[in-house]
């Protein structure tokens, strides 16, 4: 009887778990509903979008890829509403899609501003909103998206300055803000993005200088700043160090100065500096063999045309018109030029002061020369000169269409099924193509035919297709210049039903819509304009195929589970009381089995090892206690001293959550963070094992528990160490972490009194998964922390940010200066310090146990602490600014003080008396002493 009931319960629980795993997380469903409500959908694309089921993928443009999280739900990974004629606005509730990696709403008519809440999506890798009607300024909060690789906001109505915070987007590769109305200075901070490959900011209202610091962008391939207003600015000479730069386009930017020498740039293919005010001569050094385009027209260049423009094997266009060039037209540019049948060279020297030709005018086929407006056109004895001077006309290849013969007769394919003959196929085969609108946003050439074969190979290789399956129906150059193409993709010869199957369609769509094409220096960045499915593809819809059970079968299972549950309810109720202890033991054994996952760099200890290390968790080994349970000092078999945090019964979290926390902690490595040594999950226990800090907590030292006291300089170093540890959590940890419980008892001191932050990311060991599951830049719905250290704005709004940690650390700084707890005898330390500042009695509240210190340093330290404790988060400094200010204060210390203080850290002597020279006034205790060399006794 007992055995079959347990089997039945196990079947019920497994079925219910499976059922829960078939649905999207409720919070994300609510967020999707809010997104849907904020949009206007004239064609009812979103009518049946959200049902609470696993996110549906279909060809109406809604596109979601899901992954099962540790909570058993699907989570939205990618969300696309592409080219659906949607209007309305972007909902701030997007921030609740906490697992989102791709957000693509391009080519709609969405208005309004970009919600700052999108900056909370710490997992986001692509943000694509180009081709809408968005307006307003860019929120600074987008700079928090450290994992963002692609930012496309081009072709909107956005304005204002480009936020300096964008320099924090350390993972950015593709930065497209072109065709907007951005103004102001181009932020120097963008030079911090070392991964940057494409920087497109053309067609805006930017002004000021072009930052020379961009020369440090070692991965940069395309720099496109056309049609801005850098009036009088010069092209930094240092740009010649951009060894990977393929294209530099600064057309119509009001630039002055001389033309840089680009001859040392081996990858350079495209130079457009036209319509500026560049002066001086053209450098004579030979450019890269990769050069296809040189456009220096409409400037103020003088001197002669250098002969180095000859023998450039890839050159397609050389435009020097409307300058003040003189001397001869160098015929060696076209002499001995051998061009393939699909190659072309356009040479434009119009409207200069060229007076002669150094050679004949017998041009090879496909070479175009224009000389109108030069004195040479008036020399009558130069044969054929009128052919190059009488007209401005000439082939420019701006619009093209391709036609290809086929082996199929015109009537071979049934038109009503949208079938067409495959043009490049070796035999006659009719099939239904996919039609794709595709655009190269910044190609590195001006004439496409020589590169068509390379382009076809590039596309078909990425799509794992044969060459005959791709047909370029037409292409045309657009303003930019950008190259738009209409492509057709055909299924393989002898494909079933002469169409692509569903999995093939899915693969192609993913490749195009999620930017999975490999990078190409030659073709540059691309964008998908449309993905048209007609005929047999028009009704294609895909359900998420991660589930192996359809809804009908799932419904039958759920009905069966319900019947079993009714039958066994009475028996289960009786058994729960009788077998409660046995059930707990069984649960712990199952938990122990689940904890067998290995984590790199972290040791898994047995319960026996932990018991031996702590003398069976003897009370004499206990060194602390927190909301999670007790902390024990222990010694391993190899004599390593450790600290063991043992969770109590009420603090145990789920196995997945515990392992997730260990994964996070195992990736944190910084000299100012307490290191995780290992963990124990045996026998239903949850223990974290850390390095042991022999000098206890900062709170112990400030409260007088230690026999020694801390000098001002040592307090300053502790403050700096803690700040550096927290800065690492904010900026370098993956995922980033907000501590949420910074306080003096969570700052530990090692044998050298180096500060190390503990309990990072936890206010207790058992956070709720929706509260701490993705701690980076997210809204917390539950306020946790320690009274006195809590950010008042966080308490009011429940919004946890990096500035919440800044506030808490500011309270610690005040505690370091005063030696007073944050809340003592009913008084609040922050308010007391503020009152003392207003009354001019700050020196009266300084800790009397603190040894001699510089008055100026103390004042700056107090000022920093008070700024950290401002009520409004926006007025507080960032953690990076806190670190920099502390470093500046430390540098103000006389060298002998710094050296002696450092020496005293590891010294066992407490009776040393050292005299320190000074260069400014000093404070000893609370008395101001001027012009006196004090005697300070280090610890």
Description:
- The protein has 939 residues and is an alpha/beta fold.
- Among the domains are: 415-542, Alpha-Beta Plaits; 598-691, Phosphorylase Kinase, domain 1 (2-Layer Sandwich); 702-936, Orthogonal Bundle (Transferase(Phosphotransferase), domain 1).
- The chain is built from 18 helices and 48 strands.
- β38 (676-680) and β39 (687-691) form a beta hairpin.
- α1 (2-20) crosses α6 and α11 runs antiparallel to α17 (879-891).
- The protein is globular and about 105 Å long.
- It starts with a helix and ends with a strand.
- Residues 1-22, 56-61, 393-405, 543-557, 583-597, 761-781 and 895-939 have low confidence and may be disordered.
Write the layout of secondary structure elements.
Elements: H1 2-20, H2 26-38, E1 39-40, E2 57-58, E3 62-68, E4 74-81, E5 87-88, E6 102-104, E7 126-128, E8 135-136, E9 150-152, E10 157-160, E11 174-176, E12 181-185, E13 198-200, E14 205-207, E15 222-224, E16 247-249, E17 270-272, E18 279-280, E19 293-295, E20 300-303, E21 317-319, E22 324-329, E23 345-348, E24 353-357, E25 367-370, H3 386-389, E26 399-401, E27 420-421, E28 430-431, E29 434-440, H4 452-462, E30 470-478, E31 482-489, H5 502-513, E32 526-532, E33 541-542, H6 551-578, H7 580-594, E34 603-604, H8 607-613, E35 622-626, E36 629-635, E37 641-647, H9 655-666, E38 676-680, E39 687-691, H10 698-703, H11 712-731, E40 747-749, E41 755-757, H12 769-772, H13 792-797, H14 802-818, E42 823-824, E43 827-828, H15 829-839, E44 853-854, H16 855-868, H17 879-891, H18 895-905, E45 914-915, E46 922-924, E47 927-929, E48 935-936
Parallel strand pairs: 4-6, 6-7, 7-9, 8-10, 9-11, 10-12, 11-13, 12-14, 13-15, 15-16, 16-17, 17-19, 18-20, 19-21, 20-22, 21-23, 22-24, 23-25, 34-38
Antiparallel strand pairs: 1-5, 2-33, 3-4, 26-30, 27-28, 29-31, 29-32, 30-31, 35-36, 36-37, 37-39, 38-39, 40-41, 42-43, 44-46, 45-48, 46-47
Helix pairs in contact: 1-6, 11-14, 11-17, 14-16, 16-17
